[in-house]
């Protein structure tokens, strides 16, 4: 499983993911253009407050199964445009918090 990490996380957090044999794409502090390019073939995405998920990013993420947001809130993920994209993805099983 390929996981994009687009914001800084702790070394201990990275160790847990590496020990679980995830294929990590580490792009902390990257530009939106770099994030959009990197998310095309990921299965999971770990973000914090530094990443603003756009509808364009979701549209290009054909294999995306989960977005994990470290911290409080989903304001950097949820917008009407992003909700529409998330709710149209066949691989999304539940977006309960997003009210599809």
How would you briefly describe this protein structure?
With 100 residues, the chain is α/β, with parallel strands linked by helices. It is built from four helices and four strands. The C terminus is likely disordered.
General description of the model:
With 100 residues, the protein is of the alpha/beta class. The protein has a single domain, classed as Rossmann fold (3-Layer(aba) Sandwich), CATH 3.40.50.720. The chain is built from four helices and four strands. Strands 2-1-3-4 form a four-stranded parallel β-sheet, with no helix packed on it.
Notable characteristics:
100 residues, Rossmann fold, 4-stranded parallel β-sheet, 4 helices, 31% helix, 16% strand
């Amino acid at each position: 499983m390929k996981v994009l990490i687009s914001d800084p996380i702790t070394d201990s957090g990275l160790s847990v993911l590496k020990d679980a044999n995830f294929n990590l794409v580490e792009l902390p502090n990257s530009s939106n253009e770099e994030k959009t390019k990197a998310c095309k073939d990921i299965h999971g995405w770990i973000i914090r407050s530094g990443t603003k998920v756009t509808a364009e990013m979701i549209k290009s993420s054909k294999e995306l199964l989960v977005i994990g947001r470290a911290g409080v809130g989903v304001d950097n993920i949820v917008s009407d445009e992003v909700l529409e994209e998330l709710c149209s993805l066949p691989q999304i099983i539940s977006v309960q918090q997003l009210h599809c």
